[in-house]
Amino acid sequence: MTRIKICGITNLKDGLQAAAVGADALGFIFVPNTPRYIAPGQAQSIIQQMPPFLTNVGLFVDAELAEMEEIISLCRLDAVQLHGSESVDLCHQLQIKVIKAFHVRVPPENSIKRDQQRENLRAKLSNYQVDAYLLDTFVKGKAGGTGQTFDWELSTGLGDRTILAGGLNPENIRSAVSQVHPYGVDVSSGVEAEPGKKDPEKVRTFVHRVRQFDFQLINVSS
Questions:
Q1: pTM, to two decimals
Q2: Which CATH number characterizes residue 60's domain?
Q3: Which has the least CB within 10 A, 85, 86, 120, 159?
């Protein structure tokens, strides 16, 4: 089954609704001065009221180790998602599951250069022995949540713990999972009514379409 993470949760209602329709994980963004930032105390309160078997993920960008450890402990996070230039050593110091994000540039039309870009991306991922890799769209000055896609072909063949992000929404998610077959998908702005506020129908439709694809694969294989 494709793992589904709804990121940018800022309130209890959105968290409960995402869990109710079948999301596997929720993302809480601890990056100040961003549209979906949530204070650690508020995230703690929301997480305490979530059902069991739901994975709660904290998103950070170039935060200090001590700061992350404090928030991990306070909120009882299950994993962290690192969207900055965090080092391999820092990832290894965290005593928790680590998802490392990599930003993928729009590839050139030249097929040789495209292949080279894929190999460069593969080499970057191999440097990080973490629990999963998340691929997001490169937008200068942005760590994520831009609503822009990249060429999904570049994410194929990069291992069985690849999470696809960047511009996903209910309209394109079926094409994305059909092409990439990722370990998981991560959506934020694509299921929002406005920054930081989810649209319940978009969340439900997004999850439903991923599950439709999953069950189709199961039926074919059986």
A1: 0.91
A2: 3.20.20.70
A3: 85
